TrEMBL record:
UniProt KW keywords: Signal
Name the UniProt record assigns to this protein: Uncharacterized protein
Superkingdom to which the source organism belongs: Bacteria
Signal peptide: 1-27
Entry annotated with the keyword Signal: yes
């Protein structure tokens, strides 16, 4: 009996030690890393705080790229895609971070995660609105891929007109910041992965507008209704609220910086293995947001080598209908 008790005590102490060593707020780890004291105050599990592993990797990436001369921007970016994007009651989770150590600035804002897809009869890798379960780097998967990125060129496109009032319309332009990834995220440019405002024009129709600088060759411009989907999901890009995008995009134009998105495939597999073994991620030396992990059960990473052939076969079996021209607007 005494031996059993001692073994149980040892297991308990080992589990506690594992949690302490992997805890985001490990004071010893923070101190040895050189993270300034004011930034340490923002580390934690609560909404608007950043988890220690996410900050550690984002900071290391930035310092490396800055030392190599690839970036000069005084700020760097991070995202924790394991956290909830929707806290309920119209409140969005703040899981995207802007950190400017030289100015003592830490901002936590909302951001959408990749919605994934449900290919009926083939495979379902869709994500819910609140928490992401599925991650991946496959073309046309609409999934978020964690890893190291550097922001690149910004492109602003005219999308159409929308009604501002009963008598006035406004042109809608949306800027897109391209991300260039590394490792498993190296195909970010091919996937057209980047950051933009969570806004689009829905219900488009064409209106005759001769002489309009944005009209097509037949003299028509697109007109639609402006929709804000900041509380929803994305096609794998990082979508910000319109207000946040107005601050983010000018900060990145012509001044690249680093973005680290957590989790990578290694993190996803480690957490999935811990869950399968009946352990918490902390006990296994890993990290995942506890609230979302309880909701999703276990995360999954879909490598492009696995998923792209399935998507290609699905497209072949379910060919898209030929594109239909936009209807002509029926003016009120």
């Amino acid at each position: 009996m005494r031996l059993t008790s001692l073994l149980a005590t040892a297991v308990t102490l080992f589990g506690a030690l594992a949690i302490a060593l992997s805890a985001p707020s490990s004071a010893a780890a923070q101190s040895s890393s050189g993270v300034p004291a004011w930034l340490q105050a923002h580390i934690g599990p609560d909404d608007g705080q950043i988890a220690w592993p996410v900050l550690q990797r984002a900071r290391a990436l930035y310092l490396q790229k800055r030392a190599e001369g690839e970036v000069r921007n005084p700020c760097y970016l991070a995202m924790d895609a394991t956290r909830p994007g929707d806290l309920g009651g119209g409140v969005l989770g703040r899981r995207f971070y802007v950190i400017c150590e030289g100015n003592g600035v830490f901002r936590a804002i909302s951001a959408g995660h990749g919605g994934g897809r449900d290919l009926k009869g083939a495979v379902n890798f869709a994500n819910g609105r609140r928490c992401a379960k599925n991650f991946g780097n496959a073309q046309d998967s609409e999934l978020t891929a964690g890893g190291a990125y550097v922001t690149a060129d910004t492109k602003t496109s005219f999308k159409g007109y929308y009604r501002v009032s009963a008598t006035r319309e406004a042109a809608f332009f949306r800027s897109f910041v391209q991300f260039d990834g590394e490792g498993e995220a190296a195909n970010a440019r091919q996937r057209v992965i980047g950051g933009h405002a969570a806004r689009l024009l829905a219900g488009l129709c064409l209106r005759k507008a001769p002489g309009n600088p944005y009209a097509d060759r037949d003299g028509y411009v697109p007109v639609g209704k402006l929709r804000d989907y900041a509380g929803g999901r994305s096609n794998g890009c990082t979508s910000w609220s319109p207000a946040d995008a107005q601050q983010m995009i000018p900060m990145l134009q012509g001044n690249p910086t680093t973005l680290y998105i957590y989790p990578e495939s290694r993190d996803i597999r480690a957490v999935a293995q811990a869950v399968a073994g009946g352990r918490s991620p902390a006990q296994a030396g890993s990290y995942w947001n506890a609230s979302c992990l309880k909701e999703i059960g276990a995360p999954r990473f879909w490598p492009r080598q696995t998923l792209e052939p399935i998507i290609a076969q699905y497209k072949q079996d379910h060919p898209a209908p030929p594109p239909r021209p936009l209807p002509i607007c029926k003016d009120p």
